[in-house]
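Lay summary. Proteins are chains of building blocks that fold into shapes, and those shapes determine what they do. In this project we predict the shape from the chain. Here is one chain we studied, written as its sequence of building blocks.
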Amino acid sequence: MHVLKFGGTSVGSIASIKNVKQIVEARQEPVIVVVSALGGITDRLIATANKAATADESWQQEFEFIRQRHFDVVSGLLDGEDLTNVKLFISSTLDELCNIYRGIFLIGELSPKTLCTVVSYGERISSRIVATIINGAQHIDSRNIIKTIKSFDKNICDFDTTTPLVEECFADLLAGRGAKVYVMGGFISSDAKTGEVTNLGRGGSDYTAAIIAATLKAELLEIWTDVDGFMTADPRVINTAYVIPELSFVEAMELCNFGAKVIYPPTIFPVYHKNIPIVIKNTFNPSAPGTLIHNNPTHVSGKVIKGISSINDTALVTISGLGMVGVIGVNKRIFSTLADNGISVFLVSQASSENSSTIGVKNGDAERAVAILKKEFSKELEMGEINTITAEHDLATVAIVGERMKQTPGIAGKLFRILGLNGINVIACAQGASETNISFVTSKESLRKAINVIHDSFFLWDYNVLNIFLTGVGLVGKSLLEQIRKQQEYLLKHRNLKLCVVGLSNSRHCIFNREGIELTNWEEQLNASTEPSNPTILRDKIIDMNVFNAVFVDCTASPDVSCIYEDLLQHNVNVVCANKVAASGDYEQYRQLKRTARNRGAKYLFETNVGAGLPLISTINALRNSGDEILKIEAVVSGTLNFIFNELSAEVPMSQAIRMAREAGYAEPDPRMDLNGSDVIRKIVILAREAGYHISKEDVEKHLFIPDEYFEGPVEEFWEKIPQLDTFFEEMRQKAAAQKHRFRFVATLEDGKARVELREVDDQHPFYRLEGSNNVILLTTARYKEYPMEIKGYGAGAAVTAAGVFADIISIANIR
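And here is the predicted shape, written in a compact code that computers can read:
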């Protein structure tokens, strides 16, 4: 024999009740069906009673809605004599209810006893409807067999009275006689002594079904609801959450206690003691396997935790004071006082020194808890033995659950590490010796992010996720997006890395999508956006979205964009930038960004600031981290200037070489930005700082090859004047060529000082054979003193710069 419980959504419409009929009539074994009120009716019953109690005459319209709702449902399910009989039952029953409402309206009072009677009508009517539509079903009035007694302000089941009544009621079923299907309402009951109508409180229909199943020793308790089973996390928060196939009773209880609203926690107790399995099924998807809860669940290989649950209605009450240390009975007084006043505690965290105790309660109970505890400990407060009793509101509690955590070391370490890396502050935490549940409290704003990072780390270990915000969609940004698009499938399949671009912006507009922006048509989406864009908007939106494993990518050259790095790093958003402003700007700001990244456990990466995709900065850091000392740096790090001097020849004068650099995309539209050496100066400053030297742009000695007057006036004037220098440079070139020399614009760091200059190099120098726009760097260190380390390769161009940015992004995921 099975006991089937159908919740409000399962009997919420004509279609869903037909599903219930089909599910029940397909059974071969005897079944007892427990049903809730029609979906939404209980809330309507309560709302109507409250209106009547406050002399609000609109209670009558609410009541008519309730009446019509029931008539509409039965008219869509039944016909003929069955329809007539059920309508008569509904009419007479609701007439009783209407008289109760009139009484409430006249006296202006709604007592708890009257409210219990009012809400009972939902299950009384729904159970009669379901019993009528199921062929051969017999109806049972739950009030006759489920008996309660009062405990504080709640009605609890009186098993001594209930058990014999249930056994007697279903004696024929147990003996194999009479009807095969019985239908009864859940939730409703009656007082064991007075016979007055009571109810089992929230989740009472689940509890009713469990009481029946346990009493009659059913083979299985089936809870039919509107979800496929217990999920690994709340699917409204985690779109990758999936159904947990099996749970132990303990795991299910832990998940229920911490917010998983699949079943009501007390449901588990009666069947657990009788070792009766529970299965969670979906009325709207009956073929889904659901979740089976029993004593010996099968564990999926590699899965240590079973699920994540959360409560967003959390407050922490903290009692602290040195007078608590070593004093026996303090906690007894705390919990006894709270229990005597009907306040439930769901989390306890205490310092080992015993100088403070923190308890988790609902927000609505927090101030009352503080008041009664201050009263209980008034003498200790007066004497200073207890310093404060305070409440912190609007928090959230998260629990990870799994019985296998006990056999697996390092779970708590992994949990708190990933929370810390994502900037999620843990306010309090608790873990019992059973190690089935690790719970922690955080801010309500961090709840979504916390659940995401935990789910990603513990359930989707098949791949890591990086959520990318990209600003700047010019040549580099556009190339980067195309590289990401092409590599997404490969990285997911072969490197277990999922790249999700969740934000894009240019100087005018921005788009955001938590689930990811489709990269095949990102330009159309961005052009169609009406959402304005500026650095402040970007910063606020990124922080507000609060996504996990976030990476901000700056492919602009904007000083204003660089100003938001600090705030993003403070919120544990990793920063990757091709923008050189921050790393070469104010030295203290540069150091502050590095400190913030280190302190927050975030990454601040700018490899492409020098040498595009060449591993220059990372190599310098690797050398220093391993104990080496950078003594000297010589570098050709302007792909534009190197291109110009490589193109310079008898046939190509200086003015033409500069035009060719611009046409090839190496030089800026105003090439003076490259010719004035400012870009090279920024780069040597960055390299010097990464090498451990305190240097600013103003400290760099400049020896430029274009006279200062050429940098004045509009760019059109520059193009008119620059041919005047062609003869001068041709003479220089001829002299150099005669000696087999070439020109290179070299940045040098030596003895803690930096300079940039045009230098002639001979055919034996490493800089001599530097083709096209390539860059080269020589690192002289304590270890590489006689033979400097040489790094050479493409140092300019959108594709290689984008590839360097891409490499920085991937390094954040720690994959190789």
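What the prediction tells us: The longest strand covers residues 307-320.
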